[in-house]
Specification:
The protein folds into two domains: 187 residues, A middle domain of Talin 1 (Up-down Bundle); 146 residues, A middle domain of Talin 1. Helix content is 62%, strand content 0%. It contains 14 helices and no strands. It is globular and about 65 Å long.
Amino acid sequence: MRITIILILLFLSLVPSQAQSDEATKKVLSNVLIEYIQPRYLDLHRHAQKLASETEHLCNKPSASNLGVVQASFLSFTHSWAKIEWFRIGPVISKNRIERILFYPDRKSTGLKQVQRALALQDQTVTSLKSITQKSVAVQGLGALEFVLFGTGSETLQTDESSFRCSFAKAITQNMVEITKTLSDTWISESIASNYWLNPSAENPLFRNDQEALNVLMGTMIHGLEAIRDVRIGAFLKEEAKFDRPKSALMWRSENTAAMITKGLEGLLELFNVSAIETLLPEENNSLGDSTRFEFHQAIRTLNSLQKPIAGILTSESDRKQMEYLKLSVGYAMSRLDNDMSQQLGLSAGFSFGDGD
């Protein structure tokens, strides 16, 4: 499932059903900008810079230890991305930036085939920043980089025989630096994007009034949870164990699947917490904030017991049951936001966030 500008357009079709205090709503939007959007994109850019620097060092001095440093830095960058990935508003949805960072799902293995072909043919157009940005999005980002660093033949990165493969990795990491710099810079204080975020108006392309702003914020969290449940977990966990598809899981080669899902949930919980959107609820419903957090924590707690390769999880009956419970827990968190909190805030008239209608 791709969450794009269509989501925002759907929100903009809503008729506001309940007036919110201008100041209270602006405080929520300000919280999100200052405590979530800006620091998360800055953190992502810093991780990209670190990954690019360490990759260049590996290319200059290939060794097992330097490869291990780059692989660890890759995981850190992916985790930073997972925490902001579902905030699909603003510049990240322009110029295919989401897909350029992470092309997934790749249902026909298009990206994998392109990466393998580039490696087999030693295609020089994937070895420089300028040329790789003209290539398919599938070879520009984290999916391609994971195969280069962890896939078949990655052990050559420890030796001098790896110059092409390492140049490919270096071009991808430089691309990540450029993209994340754009994202971070675009959301700085007093920027056009930040002003749009803080000031709903009839001329604002994001939202026309407070109610629409809250719809976008709530929809971001709900659809993020939906994507985690249906796309990330649903890619490998099927109704019957015999139909499970561990090699369809995101980042299975780097044994990063469960961690990426965990960080995605943590990022959405962080967005919920820093927004303080629960302060807009009627006083008698203040407990909805705590009950929503409880569902998030249940899901994260379940995942913390499953930080292992996805193939091992799916072949263990007890672990697989935990993964099935995880899907339910994510659904419960969605329900708290959609069926309970959204209704109390007057945000779901004529629109079901959870169904995507």
